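We emphasize that the prediction below concerns an isolated chain of 233 residues; any contacts that depend on oligomerization or on bound cofactors are therefore not represented. The input was used exactly as deposited, without trimming of termini.
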Amino acid sequence: MTSQEQVGAVIAAAGSSERMGGVDKMFAPLGEKPVLVRVIDTFQNCRLIDQIVVAVNKSILDKCRQLAAGQGWNKVIFCEGGKRRQDSVASALSQIQPCQWVVIHDGARPLVTEALIKQGLAEARATGAAVAAVPVTDTIKAAGGDRLVQETLSRGRLWAVQTPQVFRADIINKAYRRIKAEVTDDAALVEQLGHKVRLYPGAYDNIKITTPDDLTLAEILWQRRENAYRHRQ
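Result of the prediction step, given as a token string:
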């Protein structure tokens, strides 16, 4: 990034947490801080990020604003999310001040690192769009509604896509204006516009918290990361 290029970040954190057994995963503790705080801290501390818009469920909007007041964040604003993830991202994009690049991240991926953000911004320069991803390690089979196997897919070409996903601002804004199909990630909208999307190496520990077991695993991974950091000191 040049010093003249502005970078905005969107954090999609308006999920319903319906598979968390009654726990709001955004406020679940991870290393003694809420999951959402872990995510925002990483973006707040990244010097390449100039502004952050966090889309959250309407029911916790006031709680999030109160939380922010005690965190010392100077880049962050909150907005009301939508029913679908893409509705939440669209809401946040409408709040982003003019910038050249947009980084979109899931609020449920608290183990994101500044290195992943920076690498995404570097990789996106080639095509205007880059997404973190890791090679698939399981064997993947395609099946019909009857669960009978139709095809075993070649693992060598398959990637599990994560966030951060990084886009030139004009590209992602155009994608959200023009493409109305339901998608599960932002890159799919950009692909439907005909733009090339580059994959860059994500991290296997950059997990998404969906269930209580995911939260338990995230805590183990967080503690391992903290222990490794202490040993380097």
